[in-house]
Amino acid sequence: MGYLKQLDIENFKSWRGKHTIGPFKRFNCIIGTNGSGKSNIMDALGFVMGERASSLRVRHTRDLIHGAHIGKPVANTATVKIRFCNDTGEEIIYSRTISGEFSEYRVNGKQVTLAKYTEELQKIGIIVKTRNCLVFQGAVESIAMMNAKERTKMFERISRSMELAYEYDTKLAALQKA
Ligand code: ATP
Ligand code: MG
């Protein structure tokens, strides 16, 4: 399974100017105070994957430009770029730039239509189902069919907390003995 390596944001929502977020590991956690822009990072991911404005918590696409929510956009455009590392270690760059209501999509720097862009995303197994939830193809049904234990195991595997279970149990047993 590939993974998201890096996110580059420019003038998107609360993120003024250029920001690089990452490089990411396979499992990541974003923390920050209320209103610091955590959900806007998830919105940026949805945005670069072609989500509509309504799913990104704004009425119009142009409202996504930094400052536009108070009628003072700092620029004419906003851009989000992701670097994705596929199964074979190859890096693919997807980007979306908005200028007003117009969106420009690029794959590895080459401008493409939204249909082609979506197709290119599906090639790496990504389909955007709902806001802030990027679901890998075929996984939806199998996750829904799992029982509570199986689902817990899945999260333990993803978070790699399973690898710490032995150490945790040993230390807990020692503490209980003391
Ligand atoms: P919480 O912990 O409450 O969920 P959060 O870290 O998820 O907070 P976000 O929802 O990502 O916070 O960010 C909210 C902030 O983004 C608000 O202060 C809002 O004013 C700001 N914001 C939204 N759109 C824009 C925009 N176009 N330009 C500048 N700031 C914006
Ligand atoms: Mg939030």
Automatic annotation (TrEMBL):
Family: Belongs to the SMC family. SMC1 subfamily.
Protein name: SMC hinge domain-containing protein
Subcellular location field: Chromosome; Nucleus
Biological source species: Electrophorus electricus (Electric eel)
Lineage: Eukaryota, Metazoa, Chordata, Craniata, Vertebrata
Domain of life of the native organism: Eukaryota
